[in-house]
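Section 3.1: Structural characterization of target chains.
Under the original work plan, the team committed to producing a structural model for every single-chain target entering the pipeline before any wet-lab resources were allocated. The record below documents one such target. The sequence was received from the expression subgroup and is listed exactly as submitted; it comprises 255 residues.
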Amino acid sequence: MINYLESQFSLAGRRALVTGASKGIGAGIAIAFASAGADLILLGRSRESLADTKAQVEALGRRADEMICELSDPKSVAALLPKLINLPADILVNNAGTIVRTDAIDLSLEDWNIVLQTNLTSLFQISQVVAKGMLVKGAGRIINIASLLSFQGGIRVTGYAASKHAVAGLTKALANEWGALGITVNAIAPGYIETNNTAPLRNDMKRNQSILERIPLGRWGKTDDIAGVAVFLASNAARYINGEILTVDGGWMAR
């Protein structure tokens, strides 16, 4: 008799490409996928940065291949894309992202372009190429990492907010085009998670306290809080979920 939970939530026999897999949410998702039985393709800036994630995936008995790309550099992305054309990926997690904190009046066009290139343009390019392989099989899962700033404007993060609003819209647009062809496209909008990107906020005692006061659960999120949701969206249990932006925020948006 087939175990219901195993049949619904197992990722055995699947292969997942996770961008920004060297640390934080990306590493957490990659390791959770391996725990659920998937093999991994880890994309990061260098093999050195991916070493720890690779070791943890392999310790779980799963395969971990590496792909190197600087997603903020259009030339680096252009060199990556041909390598993805025939990639047998069943799941794609577009996690890589960057943020620049400065007053809008001082935000340089260079920084604006870096944020949009990393968070949005490369995400679309990778999705477009990987989806071609999924379409041949008639099945696939794409999971984008959005943000609470897909819904809010934030403070001193103009480019990031713009890019994450766009990620939410792109998620819905691709879900509309590819859903009937077997590919579901969804996004996770993490709340305030303990990562390198949020270190400046956590180190600012006043800001940290104001954030905690708004979160009904009363704590910052952990990468595991996001990784479990990613496993769910990649699994058979989520086969009828498409075009959703799922907030995982401890209740922040409920306030």
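The longest helix spans residues 109-137.
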